[in-house]
Design goal:
The protein is mainly α. The chain has helices at residues 5-14, 21-42, 73-78; strands at 83-84, 87-88. β1 and β2 form a beta hairpin. The longest helix has 22 residues, at 21-42. The radius of gyration is 28 Å and the shape is flat.
């Protein structure tokens, strides 16, 4: 699939970009090169190849899922200007 200058004009309009004719030509060439590379990649036969999450066969070590901090909500809410039912009350900003 190749983009035309008309396609570039539509994309620029949707993105609200003001492009000169020279920029449109350069973007057209660049985007067509990118689309050509994507076509080349899609042409490669990948049957039987498992997808990888990482190029090396490693796993991320995870820490134990345990609580390490105490709940300080009551202490923090003591200094708040307005609190109700454990929630901070703030001024209304929209009517």
């Amino acid at each position: 699939m190749a983009l035309t200058l008309d396609d570039i004009n539509k994309i620029a309009h949707l993105a609200r970009l003001g492009l000169s004719d020279d920029e449109k030509s350069r973007y057209n060439d660049s985007l067509n090169n990118i689309l050509g590379l994507i076509d080349d990649l899609q042409a490669v036969d990948t049957t039987g190849i498992e997808p990888l999450a990482h190029s090396l066969d490693v796993t991320q070590p995870l820490r134990a899922d345990v609580v390490t901090e105490q709940n300080h909500r009551d202490a923090y809410q003591k200094i708040a200007p307005a609190v109700q039912d454990g929630l901070y009350l703030v001024p209304k900003v929209m009517e």
